[in-house]
Amino acid sequence: MIDVKIKKLHLKNTWTIARNSSDYKENIFIKIERNGITGFGEAAPNVRYGQTAELTIQKIKHAEKILDKHNWFQFAEIKESLDNEIQDQSCAKAAIDMAILDWVGKSLKTPLYEYWGLNPLLTPITSFSIGIDTPDILIKKIEQASEYPVLKIKVGKDNEKKIVEAVRRITDKPLRIDANEAWTAKEEALEKILWMQEQNIEFIEQPMPSDMIDETAWLRERIDIPIVADESVKTTNDIAKLAEAFDGINIKLMKSGGLLEAKKMIEVAHSLGMKVMLGCMIESSLAITAAAHLSPCVEWADLDGHLLISNDPFAGVKVENGRLILDDSPGLGINGDF
Ligand code: MG
After folding, report:
1. What is the domain count for the chain?
2. Which of 5, 90, 133, 199 is deepest in the core (most CB within 10 A)?
3. pLDDT in tens, 212-226
4. Rounded to the nearest whole angstrom, what is the distance from the C-alpha of residue 151 to the centroid of ligand 1?
């Protein structure tokens, strides 16, 4: 039996990106229990990928019978069954995969990073994301974000220069720019990126729509900063075709369908010479901490979803001067309930 609940996560500030705007996010939280040990998971449905809370809950319910018939230590088999039976609503799979691995870690009394042989001292610095806003509000948000050494700035509503100029007037911190597929003409994207790369920009994320791979490859030949894929990549199968167009990929548990697939994606991307960022949706400390356990083996992290909400039901990974700090409690190492 999977205990499932929808919970409204309130955003500290209205969150605007190129596609849409929101004041809260409804995520689904799950709990599974066996042998007196509880595993927790979270799904953050995202409309961009055709996900809804209702469909996510349906798929989680559907997964109950898969969990019932498996030994949870054999989680590779569970993943295979989930992949066969749940083709959409990858966030539902992410919640289950997270809960199983939390349960496994707790059962073995081992933090997940240790189970995977990863060094928690090697977690990267996470960027702190600033949504699209007027220059005045942006300045306020950037002042509030003074403790974070790297900022990720959302653009794509045709006011990029104003936004970047406003940010640069008050800080010289490294900036990562995320256009969320906003630029549909390659010449427009080129002109904007050529201007931006003079502004100490670390990389540009998803400048063009997800299927415009050839146009992105054209762009890559003409600019000096790395291009990172986000909307263009969901699972391992997407990576090889992106290697000519992108320098790196943004892996999110809600797109990959969980930690096991994300781990495989990191290995495949690295084998193709691509860098990896671990990113997130608007998520509580539960899903963010899950992703943080994989972060010692990636180059970049953008795991700040929990920092953007005001009613986080969980506590887990800490962020100190931007660095992700994991403690040595077993499983995901999260505290809280829903
Ligand atoms: Mg993105």
Report:
1. 2
2. 90
3. 999 999 999 999 999
4. 13
